[in-house]
Amino acid sequence: VLIRPASSQESVLQPPCGPAGLPPAASQTVPLPFPMSHGTTTLAFLFQGGVLAAADTRSSCSGLVACPASQKIRPIHSHLVGTTSGTSADCALWKRILSRELRLYQLRHGRRLSTSGAGGGASADLGGTSGGLQKASPSSSGPGLWYVCSDGTRLRGSLFSVGSGSPYAYSILDQGVRWGLTVEEATSVAREAVYRAAHRDAWSGNCVDVYHVTSKGWTRRKREDLKEEYYREKGRQGR
Amino acid sequence: MALFQVSGLKSYAELREQILPARQTHLFDRTNHYNFGTKTQEFAVPLGVDPSGFLGTCSRDGGVSIDLNHGTTTLAFKFRHGVIVAVDSRASAGRYLASNDVNKVIEINPYLLGTMSGSAADCQYWERLLAKECRLYRLRSNHRISVAAASKLLCNMMLGYRGMGLSMGSMICGWDKEGPGLYYVDDRGTRLSGRMFSTGCGSSYAYGVVDSGYREDMAVEEAYELGRRGIAHATHRDAYSGGAVNMYHMQQDGWIKVCKDDVSELIHRYRKGMF
């Protein structure tokens, strides 16, 4: 496995188990009906202008591109954005549950829950799903970025990339991300990282979404087809 | 012949049969230049032995744990002024770091290089065998072997033992009459010609960086920097790669060793100004 070029990395599927609180005897593992396959490239990083999150838009199911225009970055509320990777159904469900819980918190306590709190809530709920989430937002304490995983891992950091295309993106991000980037530079680094991952990873591709979160809320850049970028680069190289 | 019979001398063939067991007639130089060793194997594998199955049982929990040295990052790319080959220098055996100072580039001869990833033993043995074959070819046909032919030789050696547990992912780089040559050969018999390859568990990290900065008409210094960055960023993220970047440049009249830079220093230089 370690000598083939571009080895695929699929996140490990965990069989569904009951929500936390139910006794183990009541939550037996159920065999999966068919082999599920998922791959993606999502990334997010902090910089002086807030948080930038980017993702590709391909949903794959083994060898089939099930949807070339899916949304892997979903806003949770005006100042919180989550990226998804893993099984789309699981991510969509838990994202909605999280939004509901955060809204209830806001109504009860009169203020928004901080990112770390949201991360904590998400990891408690995510017991049975597969995949990773990143949540990005500026809270009262400044921009925050958390990586949350279905096995309960919850990590705070300043740069993450999740999914089968993440190694390709990581090296681009390591090269280009600095605290002092302008918004345009940061966007271009994020786009380049997703483009390179989409080029090499079979399960990532189609378009790229970029979200920028500041203290005033999130803004979304127009979705861009990576095919155009490929042909533009080909023209530049003169190949 | 009458004198021969009268004198009672035995013929050479008879004598030989008495000394050596039957059928073992090719004692020397079995891989000759007509069939390149495709008819007779280098090693005789006893019937009923399944090396790859045996290796599988060794890494099971509770059994004998033989962790093969696998982790590495190697990359090579062709450009206008030749071929750049860059490799890391870490050898890991499971969780143990066996060495941070391994040379993963095998200098086959002054105009051919081979990289090493997968099992170190397999790579070293088979590439030395390839070196022997290339030298014999040069002596017999009075011209240098082409990169395509050399990689084909290695590929056929691998195919002779396919499925028996060999582990080798190698890039054969050289410069012949056709120009710079780069082939990827692996233990399954895959042989691909290409502009750029990277192998090992850190290869995906290297791909991102090199794809991003590659241009066919790069200057030589730019190419060196690209190779350095590819390995440095891969070693930064991959636990099984590290040590130093060993870089070679294949030019028209042979290869030169460019540098051996420690990756920690490189990463500190590249990531200055990051949080």
Automatic annotation (TrEMBL), chain A:
It catalyses: Cleavage of peptide bonds with very broad specificity. Coiled coil: none annotated. The active site is at residue 40. Its main location: cytoplasm. Belongs to the peptidase T1B family. PANTHER family: METALLOPROTEASE TLDD (PTHR32194), PROTEASOME SUBUNIT BETA (PTHR32194:SF15). This is Proteasome subunit beta. It comes from Gasterosteus aculeatus aculeatus (three-spined stickleback).
Automatic annotation (TrEMBL), chain B:
GO terms for cellular component: cytoplasm; nucleoplasm; proteasome core complex. One of its GO terms (molecular function) is threonine-type endopeptidase activity. The keyword Nucleus applies. GO terms for biological process: fat cell differentiation; immune system process; proteolysis involved in protein catabolic process. It is found in: Cytoplasm; Nucleus. The keyword Cytoplasm applies. The active site is at residue 72. It comes from the Eukaryota. Keywords: Cytoplasm, Differentiation, Hydrolase, Immunity, Nucleus, Protease, Proteasome, Threonine protease, Zymogen. Its main location: cytoplasm. It catalyses: Cleavage of peptide bonds with very broad specificity. Belongs to the peptidase T1B family. This is Proteasome subunit beta.
